[in-house]
Amino acid sequence: MRKRLAVVVAAGAIFAFSSSAPAQAAPIEIGHIPECTELVPAAISIDNTAVNLEARVLLDGVSLTRAQNVFQVARNSYAPLGINLTPSFESVNFNGTNAQGLIDQAKDRFGGTRPAGADLVYVLTSKNIQLDGQNAVAGLADCIGGVAFPSRAFAVGENFSTDEASLLGIPIAKNLTAKVAAHEIGHLMGGHHHYANCVEGLLSEFPGELSPCTLMFNAVDLASINFATLNGLVVSGHGQIWAAP
To answer: Quick check: pTM over 0.90?
Structure first.
């Protein structure tokens, strides 16, 4: 996710579902082709079967109280999908500001794969992260659909000291840190930028906020807390197949 407005042009997808589908349909596993770079979803589900999504959150210069508040908000992205985002926290002291470098240090901490009992690992850092010399980066996921791969289920995101974006003094988005966390975890759950839109955003999500776009839009200052319908189907499918029951 980028901190500032960016234009994304990518392939779309269309799905057809039978109107006679049962109330609780099994998720459809499509498969990762190729691994971690799919432009179409690896799994989808059209129901909200309950799932526990266990996130190990590494606090790099961020207090436990702050992290708990951030994830209390981030949970709101997943609850409508039947996904219970459950964080556990531990403090770390990582080096550097490179986003991929921070992910790699998280991997090294656990011997290259996510720890037992966790579906994914998220680094919440106080650093102004950068990637390839660009510092307009708010977060990075190691792999789209990474929850399916123990060695790729890692992501990183910034903790913003000013957790609000404004335009001409008018708040247009709040809770930026929580939205970045939910967004990058969304990538690990198969979510794509090009499945986002600026139609389904929640204009009244927080008082005074004008965030018109859905969560996986790649400019956090325009993003709401909710997934678009298509991203929701994808995230639900990945959760039901690859996350903890």
So the answer is: no
